[in-house]
Write a structure and sequence with these properties.
The protein has helices spanning 2-28, 35-49, 55-65, 73-80, 82-95, 100-123, 126-148, 163-180, 187-196, 201-224, 231-252, 258-280, 284-287. By secondary structure, it is mainly α. Helices cover 76% and strands 0% of the residues. It has 13 helices and no strands. The model is unreliable at 284-293 (pLDDT under 50). The longest helix has 27 residues, at 2-28.
Length: 293
């Protein structure tokens, strides 16, 4: 009953979010998706569904190509990857078994964190956003490297958590929900935490995907109404991302990803260095206008 309700609510939220996004794009004259962003959305969300993650690679590409100013990055990530993440959640919540009450509690905590986090991001200066996103990229690179080196927790075989372990999971997802608004991806830290607590790693997938699918529209609706967003990039990410999710989930399902992760580590570290340098010593590029399409 809980799972069916969550799936129905996801469909409703997705429809409302898409309507708000298209209405905002029409009002701003930004309904034409950026073609480069379509390709970026397809690649990042394809590998996101297979476990690579989308926030760090997208941030690195946006920064290296200068598609948006640095202060636009959190909004671009949360809004652009929202619909592909909804598609992932609909697939994995329906297919993978996990305790419905734990799923619901972690989702609610993440949404509450996003409600608090999004307004904070909108008030931050560009240099602060650069610093936070740069640190997030360093953390992502470390997690990618740990995965390749076999240092990530293996997890247990539990499909539920109880008592203090459940409380830790819920509180942590509140914090991770707030950090998502800053462009810090939830997938990797959620998977690590739940595995350390003894949950079956497969059971973590509907939790982390469901949490993101519910919190991203909440924070995304705030971001859509701000000036720190280019909806042409956002629509491109979404347009390329949703079909890529379906392809990865139902056709490809798995790939040898170790070499790709090492490549992502190199690019992400380079981008993190540039962002942190800009945060310490702002450059003209950090505050300039987005590139034309």
């Amino acid at each position: 009953m809980i799972v069916a309700g969550l799936l129905a609510l996801l469909v409703l939220i997705g429809g409302l979010f898409l309507h708000a996004l298209l209405r905002a794009g029409r009002a701003r004259g930004q309904l034409r998706p950026n073609r480069e962003a379509i390709g970026l959305g397809a690649v990042t969300n394809f590998f996101d569904t297979l476990g690579i993650g989308s926030f760090a690679p997208t941030t690195a590409y946006l920064r290296l190509r200068g598609l948006v100013p640095d202060s636009f990055i959190p909004a671009t990530l949360n809004v652009g990857h929202c619909l592909p993440t909804l598609a992932q959640a609909l697939i994995f919540i329906n297919l993978v078994q996990v305790d419905p009450m734990l799923l619901l509690a972690c989702i609610a905590a993440s949404v509450a964190g996003a409600v608090i986090g999004a307004p904070v991001v909108l008030r931050l200066a560009t240099r602060a956003v650069q610093g936070v996103v740069g640190l997030a990229l360093l953390i992502a690179a470390a997690l990618y490297a740990m995965t390749n080196l076999g240092l990530m927790p293996g997890g247990g075989d539990a499909l539920s958590l109880h008592g203090g372990l459940a409380v830790v999971a819920v509180v942590a997802h509140f914090v991770m929900g707030a950090l998502m608004s800053f462009g810090i991806g939830l997938y990797a830290p959620s998977l690590v935490l739940l595995s350390l607590l003894g949950l079956n790693p497969a059971a973590a997938f509907p939790i982390m995907m469901g949490a993101c699918a519910f919190l991203m529209p909440v924070s995304g609706l705030r971001f859509v109404r701000t000036d720190r967003i280019d909806l042409r990039i956002v629509l491109g990410l979404a347009l390329g991302g949703v079909p890529a999710v379906l392809l990865a989930a139902f056709v490809v399902k798995s790939l040898p990803l170790q070499a790709l992760r090492w490549g992502v580590v190199v690019v992400v570290l380079y981008s993190a260095t540039l962002l942190l340098r800009s945060a310490i010593r702002p450059t003209r590029a950090a505050t300039g206008a987005p590139a034309s399409t």
